[in-house]
Amino acid sequence: MSIRYDLSGKIIEACKGMNQSGLNQGTAGNISCRFDNGMLITPSGIAYDQMEENDIVFVSNDGTYDNNKVPSSEWRFHQIIYQTRPDLNAVVHNHAQFSTTLSILNKAIPAIHYMIAAAGGKDIPCIPYATYGTPELSDHVATGFAERNAILMQHHGMTAAGETLAKAVWLAEEVETLSKLYTNLLQTGLEIPTLSDDEIAVVLGKFKHYGLREKS
């Protein structure tokens, strides 16, 4: 079994897992992993339960891709994340319910809980809207990922990335949990307390050795 085939299988399983957990619906989301001089990414328009390893598309760093295959329409912002952040090797994008709700409201998630630091900073920003699949959206994504490992995307959804595919999926789940908490807090109409920047700095230091631990 080739490395590409094995990684493609892991991408498919992660896609199915997103839908089974309710993190995503239908074919709305997309997943990629850094591979060779480019990336492997889910194809456009193929249902996850029908997807096979040979359907996963290789897109090179110059933007060319496999003949007779069509990558996700969002491949450009996946590519720019890898270009912006050489430490990240997997990207998960979805339209999770609570994350997307906040994105429609154009609300960043503030430091309501110390787990906000899992995304790399004192908040999870919401980048400006741009039409899906466009270079303009990619530019916004690059700005968002310059200092964060996860973002909300106005009127769109959320994107998380990680050193590995498992860590990217884990972070996406954490972002959705934080989004649900924040959405619930907003409904109270009360002033929402947040952790101080100093405390988040402490947590960020501790998070250098925190997070999903994968068995070899």
UniProtKB/TrEMBL annotation:
Pfam families attached to this UniProt entry: Aldolase_II (PF00596)
CC annotations in GO: cytosol
Pathway(s) served: Carbohydrate degradation
EC annotation from Swiss-Prot or TrEMBL: 4.1.2.17
Record-level GO BP terms: arabinose catabolic process; fucose metabolic process
Keyword set, alphabetical order: Arabinose catabolism, Carbohydrate metabolism, Fucose metabolism, Lyase, Metal-binding
Alphabetized SUPFAM superfamilies for the sequence: AraD/HMP-PK domain-like (SSF53639)
GO terms for MF: L-fuculose-phosphate aldolase activity; transition metal ion binding
Gene3D superfamilies cross-referenced by the UniProt entry: Class II aldolase/adducin N-terminal domain (3.40.225.10)
Domain Class II aldolase/adducin N-terminal stretches: 9-183
TM helices/strands, residue ranges: none
Coiled coil: none
Name of this protein: Fuculose phosphate aldolase
